[in-house]
Amino acid sequence: MRRFLGYYITICGLTIAVMLSYSGFSYRSCRPFWAGLQPNGLLMTWDWDANPIYESERIHIDVTNSPLVVYHYKLPRQITDDETRLVLDLADFHLERNLPYLALVTLQRGSGIIPLRQRQMFADWLEDRCDQLNRVDCSAVILVPEAIFRAVLRVVYRFREPPMRTITAADHAGAAAAVVSELERMGEPITAEIEAVLRRLGSW
What we know:
The chain has seven helices and six strands. It is of the alpha/beta class.
């Protein structure tokens, strides 16, 4: 079960269920910011108001169409601590202001998983925010093309429901349909910009 949880946290990228407690690195000392992110220990700063898209060879983050926030993990094995904190701070921004939040998380097929230290960062974050996740209208759509990994998630779900609404999709069309359904459930508009993002899913 511990192995199941490790991968579960990894593929979700953020705001997915935590079932076991971890020791070691703790994210609890970090404070969230929206513009000019500078939590304790964060070497990189990023002004999301001025630059709503963050792009590196490892990850693509797009907050242009909030409440939809896109996280595309291109090289998850090489993701940095700073980039992981950017992911968590974006989620904090929405949660602490009671803003609706829909994370669309995709991984490059065959690209592996993030390191253990960063899985611990996600686990600490999730453990600390279970109450907030229950209060705020938030959900995650996870694109999981590999059938074996979807089977792992089904096993995990039998033991513990995630602390936020989570939908897994097998392909790009399924992920796009799930995003539309979730935005409609939240009462959020499906803008032309969001439709364009969903059309581009197949090119990632």
